[in-house]
Amino acid sequence: xxxxxxxxxxxxxxxxxxxxxxxxxxxxxxxxxxxxxxxxxxxxxxxxxxxxxxxxxxxxxxxxxxxxxxxxxxxxxxxxxxxxxxxxxx
Length: 90
Known about the structure:
single chain
């Protein structure tokens, strides 16, 4: 006895692909940013967790905004290391 499965009917057909492509892009963008931050900060445990666990961007967003220590929305004001020299006038 052979079973014929209609995969397009089970998965919903074309709308399934139209839903998955934006979700894939969404997830890859957040995962890339979170992995980059974790690697830059040397946080190996977070890096592995973010790499292995797939939550469609939820864990990545939580890491970026709560655990990475980055301050977003605040401009860093750098002080000059050496004071500017006044122009020489003859």
